[in-house]
Each structure stands twice: as C-alpha cells, then as structure tokens.
Design a protein that fits this description.
The protein has a domain at 11-113. Helix content is 65%, strand content 0%. It has 4 helices and no strands. The chain has helices at residues 11-52, 58-93, 98-140, 171-175.
Length: 193
C-alpha cells in the first residue's frame, strides 16, 4: 500500500480515469451475465446427470468440469474488472486518497492480465504442438486419410445399386407365390352357331 503524502489527480486526469472505469464496468457486466448463465447450466447439467444416471459417464463429467472452469473464469473476470472499476471511480469521487485506490485497481488489473497471460501461454503451447504434429505428418510421408480395410462378414450380401437400376425386393415378396393376372378374352374368339 501507498504510505506517502496524499495525492490528487487533476481534472483532465480524472476524466481519463473515469472513462477507463466505465469501460471496465461494461466488461464486468457481460462477464457477470456469462457467469450466471454458466452457473445455471452447471446446476441444470448436474441435476440432469443425477436424475438420468449420467454421472458415471466420464465424457459427461468432463463436460460438467469444463462448464465449472468456465464459470470460475467468467466470475473471476467479473470480479477483477468490477473491483478495478470501483477503485478507479473512487479516485474520481474522493479527495486525497487517489494513490491507494489506484494501487488497488492496478492490483485487480494485474490479476486480470495474469489470467489473460496464462490463456495466451496455453494457446501458444497448443499452437506449437499442432505445428510440430503437422510438420511431422508432412515429412513422414504417411497419408492420414488411409484407414485400415474394413472386414465384411462372409454372409453379408451387397446392397442394391440404385444408380444401375437395381432394386431390392422386400423379403416377403421373394417367398410369396407369384400372382396370376386374369386372362382377357380376345375379340376374335366369337361363338359360332
């Protein structure tokens, strides 16, 4: 904390600080909305998981953990930006305590940018891993689209090919006797007296 003599920013400096405070507030409000929506999804997902017995499925659990981490990130973003905004607003509204409020705001902004720096480092690492894997694939000469052959059971019959005019008869029609069409009388056959 600052223990020096009281310091007061000038009016033009206060306007710059007030603008930054308003900008931070407008970042924090959507972050709170995101945190609230994410928390609601987490609660609903947990209740549905318990009701439907999905909490034994590791994929479902990992999705819930992802939503939990997202909630923590959004809430942290909200808290740090709102606290920094309040500290900067206090600089503008109070007299003689500008430096302590500035230091508190800078501390919260430091936390926020520390989180952002962590994300950038993780994404940079993931991008480097992706690049190395892509280069390995490029220079290894292996075709990624080559799949192992599919084994077809011996008793399997090929499907009809509609493009060549083949059609598949229903199974019941194969076993049923063919229906005879009634014969029509020819007009030439007339009864002779």
């Amino acid at each position: 904390m600052y223990d020096g003599p009281p310091y007061e920013f000038t009016e033009p400096q206060n306007r710059v600080i007030a603008d930054l405070s308003n900008s931070l507030r407008w970042v924090s409000i959507p972050a709170l909305a995101l945190a609230s929506i994410t928390l609601a999804n987490l609660v609903i997902g947990t209740v549905l998981g318990i009701r439907d017995g999905l909490l034994t499925n590791w994929h479902y659990i990992s999705l819930l953990l992802f939503v939990l981490v997202s909630f923590i990130i959004y809430f942290s973003l909200f808290r740090w930006t709102m606290t920094a905004s309040a500290g900067l607003q206090a600089i503008v509204k109070t007299k003689g305590k500008d430096i302590p409020y500035l230091m508190a705001s800078l501390d919260n902004l430091g936390n926020l940018f520390g989180l952002l720096a962590t994300f950038i480092k993780v994404f940079l690492l993931l991008a480097l891993i992706s690049l190395v894997l892509s280069l390995f694939q490029l220079f290894s000469g292996k075709d990624v689209n080559t799949l192992p052959p599919v084994k077809v059971p011996e008793n399997a019959k090929p499907a009809p090919n509609k493009a060549n005019g083949e059609t598949k008869k229903p199974e019941a029609a194969k076993d049923a006797p063919a229906e005879k069409k009634p014969e029509e009388k020819k007009p030439e056959e007339k009864a002779k007296p």
